[in-house]
Structure to design on (437 residues):
């Protein structure tokens, strides 16, 4: 077991410098996924670790008329404690469904998004909400859509050497929003995944709809979502079947194992919206 | 490395490696055995403690992360007046817990009452969902929490009038 060198940076600039000096630096936020992966009495951690607890810039909340910015170092429980109606309801409900209150007291929103091995619970709802992230590296800060965390094959693609500092969530009005978890509800396994759908329904007509899946792969199909827009609810059964089939085919190209479950959830979502 | 923190109200220091989890430090270096290391994945709730007032699984915290923080274990919690309120509520409701979950369950309820003076049934169930043991039934747990909230409310009301 290696005795790790622990750093407690006070600013994002200090952290970026540490990262430049130590390319294999482990950035330690809530650490829930890091410690869960490493069972046993002693935890085998990389030689250099940076703890984010002391960086106050990563723990801010800023709301404007059009969006809310969440610091990546905010814990899930801290986000849930933010005044009601500050955040989209579907996002809040998704956070409430993550693990247990004790784990949510440790886990951070940034850690949930930046996991390299798989996609965690917040990706699907944030992808639906068209959230963006502030990434910082030696070249400076930049904003990118959370969709960019998945590559063309739907696999995790967190940019190497970048630091996730903020998540920006647009504040649009949605009439419906549901997140459903499949597989082990307590901890992510190879089978577990999260499916989110948000929609705006006006006089029984679909004004806008977004659906996303996040597990070992992550995907969203805006072109297919566009085919539902303008349709009256409830959908005609043949139309619904055709739409579900199209989503299933698109998902099968990226993740054949998950495609049937994804299709079932798309069908359930369309049925729910029609009630 | 040496980690300095506040443990049950006292300043303490401990020699720990970067691979040590808080639960093992508490048990092996300080002899505080109420928190138990079982799943080591943060799911069972047997190792729950309060860090800076927040309920957390101590198996999911490396020792280096508690530098400068305040840790309260069940051994420290039983010394508080808040525990007395909870104890009365537990006795009145007839809540009986097993030796595995007792510490986590009571700390979860204590933490809930700290943030919510009059919790709802849903809030109680949500709070104890951090503990996986099923040795006691939910209704008795809810009754204990509400009775403890009453005791706490009466005590703080009396103190306010003095």
């Amino acid at each position: 077991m290696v005795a790790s060198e622990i750093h407690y940076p006070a600013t994002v600039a200090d952290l970026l410098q540490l990262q430049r000096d130590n390319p294999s630096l482990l950035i330690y936020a809530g650490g829930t996924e890091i410690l869960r992966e490493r069972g046993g009495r002693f935890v085998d951690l990389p030689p250099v670790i940076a703890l984010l607890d002391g960086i106050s810039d990563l723990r801010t909340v800023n709301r404007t008329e059009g969006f809310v910015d969440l610091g990546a170092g905010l814990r899930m429980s801290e986000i849930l404690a933010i005044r009601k109606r500050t955040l989209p309801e579907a996002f809040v409900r998704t956070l409430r469904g993550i693990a247990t209150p004790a784990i949510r007291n440790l886990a951070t929103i940034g850690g949930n998004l930046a996991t390299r091995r798989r996609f965690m619970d917040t990706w699907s709802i944030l992808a639906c909400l068209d959230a963006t992230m502030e990434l910082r590296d030696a070249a400076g800060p930049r904003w990118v859509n959370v969709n960019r965390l998945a590559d063309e094959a739907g696999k995790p693609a967190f940019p190497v050497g970048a630091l996730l500092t903020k998540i920006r969530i647009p504040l649009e009005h949605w009439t419906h929003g549901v997140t459903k978890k499949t597989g082990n509800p307590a901890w992510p396994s190879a089978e577990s995944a999260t499916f989110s759908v948000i929609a705006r329904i006006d006089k029984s007509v679909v004004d806008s709809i977004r659906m996303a899946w996040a597990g070992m792969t992550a995907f969203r199909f805006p072109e297919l979502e566009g085919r539902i827009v303008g349709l009256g609810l409830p959908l005609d059964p043949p139309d619904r079947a055709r739409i579900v089939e199209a989503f299933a085919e698109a998902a099968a190209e990226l993740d054949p194992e998950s495609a049937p479950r994804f299709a079932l959830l798309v069908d359930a979502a369309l049925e729910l919206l029609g009630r | 490395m040496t980690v300095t923190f506040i443990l049950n109200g006292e300043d303490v220091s401990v020699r720990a490696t970067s691979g040590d989890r808080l639960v093992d430090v508490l048990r092996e270096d300080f002899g505080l055995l109420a928190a138990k290391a079982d799943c080591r994945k943060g799911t069972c709730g047997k190792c729950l403690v309060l860090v800076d007032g927040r309920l957390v699984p101590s198996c999911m915290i490396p020792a280096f992360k508690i530098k400068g923080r305040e840790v309260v274990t069940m051994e420290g919690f039983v010394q508080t007046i808040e525990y007395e309120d909870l104890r009365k509520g537990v006795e009145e409701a007839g809540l009986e817990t097993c030796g595995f979950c007792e510490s986590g369950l009571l700390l979860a309820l204590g933490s809930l009452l700290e943030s919510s003076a009059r919790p709802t049934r849903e809030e109680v169930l949500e709070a104890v969902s951090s503990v996986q043991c099923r040795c006691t039934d939910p209704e008795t747990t809810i009754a204990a929490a509400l009775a403890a909230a009453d005791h706490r409310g009466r005590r703080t009301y009396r103190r306010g009038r003095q």
Chain A has a mean pLDDT of 94.
